[in-house]
Amino acid sequence: MAEVKKHLLTAGGLADLENELHELEVNRRREIAQKIAEARELGDLSENAEYDAAMDEQRDIEARVAQINKILANYELISDDEGDTSVITMGCKVKVRDMELKKDMEYKIVGSTEANILKNRISNESPIGKALIGAKEGETVKVASPSGIIKYKVLSFKK
């Protein structure tokens, strides 16, 4: 049987998931139950848009609860204290310069479960994440992209 892939999480990512799960299970379930009850009071459920919307929302909440529970049942915590401090590892905040655009960017390298480019959290499995893992301050890494090779210079990093 194939080995199940572990979800790599930082301590902050784990706390975020646990908080989201609590919010969904305690508050959102209560809210949606109230919406369903109110929609039922409106009468005929076959043509009740409020009831349909509430049921759709309930399905979405339950799907997310199941997804979080699956992650929490099979995760590995990325420790900020472990590993070589002379090279970039998982959990590091990294400041890089795009050598072509001359633009500085800052990322935190996390597991794919936590990755969110809008929060500058990139996956260790992404092309740039892979290239940065193991790099040192001052090094230039090359990342293959659809538009060609992009070079990033590591300006600094910290655990």
Describe this structure in a few short sentences:
With 159 residues, the chain is an alpha/beta fold. The chain has 3 helices and 7 strands, in the order βααββββαββ.
Shape: elongated
The tally of strands reads 7
Number of helices: 3
SSE class: alpha/beta
Strand content: 25-35%
Cα distance spanning the termini: 36 Å
Mean pLDDT over the residues: 91
Report the biggest beta sheet as strand number plus sense, adding barrel if it closes: 5 strands, mixed
Q: Residue share in helices?
A: 25-40%
Strands in their spatial order, largest beta sheet: 5-4-3-7-6
- Using only C-alpha atoms, the radius of gyration works out to 21 Å
Unreliable runs, pLDDT <50, ≥5 residues?
A: none
Helix-strand topology string: EHHEEEEHEE
